[in-house]
């Protein structure tokens, strides 16, 4: 049995092909590399303004975790929505379905380059933040990794779902905008939840993207900002609810994305 006939081999083959297409698409590369940096640069002033209204707000912690969230949203969700739409319009996905790869392998293989690029950028942001901002080592690396994995899986499912209502690559910027804005403003990326009124913050914690992104902060800093920092053991109880909710939302997004994904071009 050759590597290409195994699920892992097919995923790698599809991923390499998608990576080649991604490198050739200047617009997609700009979205994946430059746009997150522009948004991250603007976050500092927003967080500084929030800190003036919220004494004790940890600007550096919110900056690093928020930056990771922005990168994941743009590179995985927005970029992958465009990729799914483009490959569908070019009949690439339809042709792939006639081969050995399953539908799930085709969707995941298309996502591999975006996911790899996003995780690499998150790693660089984490290392850079730790060195430049003198941040502590992660309190619970397991929760941090779980948060990254669940966020990636959630956004991949949401990208597949969003592509179902996206007719062309040019309209992907419109169809992804609502979730992008809701996640940035309501999931604690641009506006920390602890700086919002309690009633608003409680609603925002129920949004699909909030629990997984909360795990990033709990895993690194031992708190989601609503209480004192905990040690390794304490973070498990604090992260239990976000972990359960993140897994639930991820399952719903994966099911919905697979259920309503469109393989035929939209006319």
Summed up, what is this model?
The protein is mainly alpha-helical and 267 residues long. Helices cover 74% and strands 0% of the residues. The mean pLDDT is 87.
Characterization of this structure:
With 267 residues, the chain is mostly helical. The chain contains eleven helices and no strands. It has helices at residues 7-24, 26-53, 59-89, 92-96, 103-132, 141-163, 172-175, 177-186, 198-204, 210-221, 232-260. Helix 3 (59-89) runs antiparallel to helix 5 (103-132), helix 3 runs parallel beside helix 6 (141-163) and helix 6 (141-163) packs antiparallel against helix 10. It is globular, with a radius of gyration of 19 Å.
List descriptors.
267 residues, mainly alpha, 0% strand
List the helices and strands and how they pair.
Blueprint: H1 7-24, H2 26-53, H3 59-89, H4 92-96, H5 103-132, H6 141-163, H7 172-175, H8 177-186, H9 198-204, H10 210-221, H11 232-260
Helix pairs in contact: 1-5, 2-3, 3-5, 3-6, 3-10, 5-6, 6-10, 6-11, 10-11
Cα separation of the termini: 40 Å
Our Rg estimate from Cα atoms comes to 19 Å
Count of runs of 4 or more consecutive helical residues: 11
The percent range for helix content is over 70%
Which term fits the overall shape? globular
């Amino acid at each position: 049995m050759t590597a290409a006939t195994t699920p892992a081999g097919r995923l790698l083959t599809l991923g390499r092909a998608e990576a080649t297409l991604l490198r050739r698409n200047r617009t997609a590369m700009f979205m994946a590399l430059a746009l997150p940096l522009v948004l991250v640069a603007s976050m500092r002033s927003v967080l500084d303004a929030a800190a003036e209204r919220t004494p004790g707000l940890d600007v550096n912690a919110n900056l690093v975790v928020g930056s990771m969230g922005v990168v994941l949203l743009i590179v995985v969700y927005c970029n992958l929505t465009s990729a799914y739409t483009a490959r569908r319009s070019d009949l690439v996905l339809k042709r792939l379905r006639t081969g050995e790869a399953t539908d799930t392998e085709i969707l995941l293989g298309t996502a591999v380059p975006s996911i790899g690029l996003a995780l690499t950028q998150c790693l660089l942001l984490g290392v850079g933040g730790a060195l430049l901002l003198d941040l502590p080592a992660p309190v619970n690396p397991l929760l941090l990794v779980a948060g990254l994995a669940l966020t990636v899986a959630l956004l991949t499912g949401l990208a597949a779902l969003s592509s179902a209502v996206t007719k062309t690559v040019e309209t992907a910027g419109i169809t992804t905008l609502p979730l992008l804005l809701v996640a940035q403003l309501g999931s604690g990326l641009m506006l920390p939840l602890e700086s919002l009124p309690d009633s608003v913050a409680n609603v925002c914690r129920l949004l699909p993207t909030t629990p997984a992104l909360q795990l990033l902060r709990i895993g690194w800093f031992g708190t989601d900002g609503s209480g004192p920092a905990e040690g390794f053991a304490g973070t498990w109880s604090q992260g239990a609810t976000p972990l359960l909710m993140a897994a639930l939302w991820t399952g719903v997004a994966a099911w919905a994305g697979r259920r309503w994904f469109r393989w035929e071009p939209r006319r």
